[in-house]
Amino acid sequence: MSILEKELRENSYPGRGIVIGRSADGSKAITAYFIMGRSSNSRNRVFVTEGEGIRTEAFDPSKMEDPSLIIYAPVRVLGNKTIVTNGDQTDTIYEGMDKQMTFEQSLRGREFEPDGPNYTPRISGILHIENGRYSYAMSILKSDQGDPSACLRYTFAFENPLAGKGRFIHTYDGDGNPLPSFTGEPTVVDFDQEFTADIDTFTDRVWDALNEDNKVSLFVRFINIADGTYETRIVNKNQ
After folding, report:
1. Cis amide linkage into residue 117, ω under 30° from 0
2. d(CA 47, CA 53)
3. N or C terminus: fewer CB in 10 A for the chain?
4. What is the pLDDT of residues 173-230, one digit of tens each?
5. pTM for the full predicted model
6. Whether pLDDT at 102 is above 90
7. Is the Cα dihedral 82, 83, 86, 88 positive or negative?
8. Which CATH number fits the domain that encloses residue 13?
């Protein structure tokens, strides 16, 4: 079992999570994004394709309660950059970078979600592939130990990431009330040859490792670093 699978199996409620890294053979950039839910409103969702990215939508529109924090585009593509986030800050990053702002600068006007007492962190990632070179960055915006009067901003940049290595960041350190926010740096996860041999193996193993009661949807993308072409998989618990 990989470190990523172990992390997922040992945390019944990581909330929403982003994984970014590089395949064991070094040829592919890998990213995954998953959502989980405890309430019926959060669980009533699916991922659907939108352009080169994805968006969330209600599985049963008649049961949708408050769409404000659960309906958004988690993945968008801007040229040679793939943006992955857990909220509508995807659009904020896209629009900022389209105006020549950096990833970090684009997020300056955003903070954690206004869903007290949890104050869910906003987690974001960006993959940049150009001329056979690959780098990525991750960000978390969170309250200061549950105090909404202060916002903590952390950005982690990874240049020329190592083959067979990835990073994992998620919103919650576990279940609870209020939910405890993620702490520390993104977790280092190993991508061995078997785990990243193909996108279907990776997708199946990550999906199987997520808590059966709480998992909702999973997005996975393998991008060829040499030319930028990619494969995508989407898994929805609601079919």
Report:
1. yes
2. 10
3. C
4. 999 999 999 999 999 999 999 999 999 999 999 999 999 999 999 999 999 999 999 9
5. 0.97
6. yes
7. negative
8. 3.60.20.20
Look at residue 1 and tell me whether its pLDDT is greater than 90: no
Lookup: tokens for 63: 């049961």
CA–CA separation, 155 vs 186, rounded Å? 10
Q: Residue 44 CA to chain centroid, in angstroms? A: 19
Confidence tier at 2 by pLDDT (50, 70, 90): confident
Full residue range of the structural domain in which residue 53 is found: 3-236
Paired strand residues for 81:
78, 128
CA dist 2 and 192 (Å) reads: 8
238 Cα distance to chain centroid: 19
Residue 34 to residue 52: CA distance in whole angstroms:
17
3-class secondary structure per residue, the chain: CCHHHHHHHCCCCCCCEEEEEECCCCCEEEEEEEEECCCHHHHCEEEEEECCEEEEEECCHHHCCCCCCCCCCCEEEECCEEEEECCCHHHHHHHHHHCCCCHHHHCCCCCCCCCCCCCCCEEEEEEEEECCEEEEEEEEEEEECCEEEEEEEEEEEEECCCCCEEEEEECECCCCCCCCECCCCCEEEECCCCCCCCHHHHHHHHHHHCCCCCEEEEEEEEEECCCCCEEEEEEECCC
Burial class (CB in 10 A: 0-12, 13-18, 19+), 184: exposed
